[in-house]
Design a protein that fits this description.
The protein is mainly α. Helix content is about 50%, strand content about 10%. The radius of gyration is 13 Å and the shape is globular. Keywords: Signal.
Amino acid sequence: IMLHSTLALSLLLIAVTSNLAMAIKKEKRAPQTLSRGWGDEITWVQTYEEGLYQAKKSNKPLMVIHHLEDCQYCQALKNAFAENEEIQEMAQNNFVMLNLM
């Protein structure tokens, strides 16, 4: 089931990124939490080491979101990720989440 969830989320994120890459808002907000705008309701770990520890402890895969503030594709993916409740719920319940810039 985890492999299916991981594959489904990956395919969804790829599809959304390719479709929304040109629909990027120019407005930038300063991130206030570890989510950096990717989802404040998600529990985020602070470091890669903490992520590995939590992943092993919880038997969940570690999902690393690596992005740049100036990347239009990253911003399109962030908007799609943050606005989709199903993705937010899947990320919170099925993964240990780490956000890197």
